[in-house]
Amino acid sequence: MKISLPTPADRTRALLAVCTALCALCGNSQTVVKEMDGANTRFIPGCYMKSGEAAIYFSEDEYGYSDGGTCYEAQIFDFNLNPLKSFYFQIFHPHTVREARATSGVREKTRVIEDARNMISGLPPVSTMNDRKTEFINWVFESNRYLDPTITLEGLTAGCTVEGTTVYITMPTTQHIGEYSEYLKSVRIYLDESDIFGYKFTYAIQVPVCDGEWTKSTWYDAPVSNFCTPRCNDVGKLNHWNGGVYLPFSQTFFNDDEKFEYVRYTAELAERKSNAGTDIIAPDSQPDAAEFLFGITPTDRDGDGVEDFRQTYYGIHCTGIEVVSEDGDVIYSFPVPDNCEGKASIEFFKSDSHILAQADFNWYDDEKGHMHTVRFYRIDKNSGVAKIIREENHMSARPNPVSAGTPVEISLPLQEKGPRTVTVTAMNGAQVLNHTVAPGTPSVSIPTGNLSPGIYLFTLTENGKPAETCKIIIR
Questions:
Q1: Three-state SS string across 433-462, please?
Q2: Which DSSP string corresponds to 46-87?
Q3: Is residue 303 predicted with pLDDT exceeding 50?
């Protein structure tokens, strides 16, 4: 059965029918906006229109799904569906290019780890190996029979071999369930010529043999436009939006001329190669077993030391935010650092002849420390000048991720609100460290030698109240 999707015209007619019905009940376009609040349609409230009447913002293809194009049309209608304006915005298509070598089968990869323990006294010498072997079997039996009732002298004797001057006894693997147990193939307890006993653990895994030709594939994410819908707060007009609304277009918020204004990102597609094969780090309390035991990583799937997989992500690189008039003139500009991570966000607060803008963005400093910045601008509507009046660089940490044993340097916000401490909390909620910060200290060094690999939350507390938190990955 063929299913026909609604066309833009169908959606517009349906929207018009709803609006007409609501207009009949309410008779006021501003009330219609209130009644339709929470619907999927975006509105321009009448207080932000030069005519004082509300309008409908409708995008024919906001995400670019229909034809994979590079732009989409955003249209504005009044409530009688009279067209007011049309705008076109750039669409970006984030995607990941994956390259992998073809496989020709599978093979078993093994790893033997030796764990030497203590000396056993009173054993026969190596020259009387049969007696030495028998005595060692008896010692192993007595040491383990209460731990595992299934162990017998007969079983230990059957699993006992001599290789040179070393005696080996195969043990049940069920006794050694724990770290890396999913790969454990065999356990042998040994006695060497110096009377030292220990264990040899053999681990095994089936891996693909990556020795074929390279192939390439592309995975597309949802397309994203450079259109920004910021929250705009009119301090002098408190209403059911609590003075603010996510405003796609306006004629009166940023200035009082007849032209529409809107906010857009300045952005581009940027290449970012992921050596780890993924940007997601799972909250694991142990080192990755496959990598530790066999050298298997997302970029080396068979653990032979040769790269056989790589991927490059082409994502959106945001360089700033602009307020633009309908004829394309940039009214205000809010730049962000070149190494900004993800999209910045902005919120506007209007009062009399001034507008306050609050821009939030994440970025990395010169030492690759993660930073979160909140930057406040005061905009003079008469002169068109946007001036930075305050900037807050929040708590950051480096290096991150960090190897266990390497101290983490925590950069703290400059504004102090009382006595400070930095606490370290594991993912299970257990507090593992509490560090008092001396007044006026811009940064602190937190030791990690006693922390197991995993994800931890570093929290800055001021006057006994949590102020900021950042996530640290310890490997």
A1: EEEEECCCCCEEEECCCCCCCEEEEEEEEE
A2: GGGSTTS--EEEEES-TT-TTT--SEEEEEEEETT--EEEEE
A3: yes
Here the tokens at position 18 are 């709803």
Q: What is the pLDDT of residue 418?
A: 81
Q: What is the pLDDT of residue 243?
A: 57
CA distance 72 to 69: 8
Cα-based torsion angle of the residue sequence 56, 57, 60, 63 in order, rounded to the nearest 10 degrees: -150
Nearest to 227 by CA among 28, 76, 433: 76
Tens digit of pLDDT for each residue in 95-142? 999 999 999 999 999 999 999 999 999 999 999 999 999 999 999 999
Is the model's pLDDT at 304 over the cut of 80?
Answer: yes
Tokens encoding 427: 């993912």
Task: List % helix, strand, coil for the chain (3-state, nearest 5).
Answer: 15, 50, 35
For strands 231-234 and 340-351, give the pairing: parallel
Residue 126 DSSP one-character state: G
CB 395 within 8 A of CB 365: no
Dihedral angle computed from the Cα positions of residues 263, 266, 272 and 278, in that order, rounded to the nearest 10 degrees: 0
Sheet with 465-474, strands from edge to edge, namely 431-437, 420-426, 454-462, 465-474
The C-alpha atoms of residue 217 and residue 102 are separated, in whole angstroms, by: 12
State which of 85-94, 97-106, 166-175, 283-292 shows the largest mean pLDDT.
Answer: 97-106
Counting residues of the chain whose pLDDT is more than 90, the rounded percentage is 35
Residue 373 in tokens: 């910045």
Q: Are strands 443-446 and 231-234 parallel, antiparallel or unpaired?
A: unpaired
Q: Which residues neighbour 403 within 8 Å (Cβ) at sequence distance 6 or greater?
A: 474, 475
Residue 451 has pLDDT above 70, yes or no: yes
The fold of 399-475 is Immunoglobulin-like (2.60.40)
Q: How far is CA 305 from CA 111, 210, 296, 412, in A?
A: 15, 11, 9, 40
Question: In whole angstroms, what is the distance from residue 123 CA to residue 76 CA?
Answer: 93
- Model pLDDT, residue 25: 37
Strand partners, 204: 110
Sheet holding 408-411, edge to edge: 396-398, 408-411, 443-446
Mean pLDDT of 151-168: 94
From its phi and psi, is residue 352 left (phi > 0), alpha (psi between -120 and 50) or beta? left
To which H or E segment does residue 110 belong?
strand 95-119
- For the chain, the domains span 1-91, 103-208, 226-393, 399-475
Q: How far is CA 402 from CA 74, 114, 324, 370, in A?
A: 46, 28, 43, 13
Average pLDDT for 183-197: 94
Q: Please compute the mean of the pLDDT values over residues 432-447 and round it to a whole number.
A: 87
- Degrees (nearest 5) of the Cα angle 226, 232, 236? 165
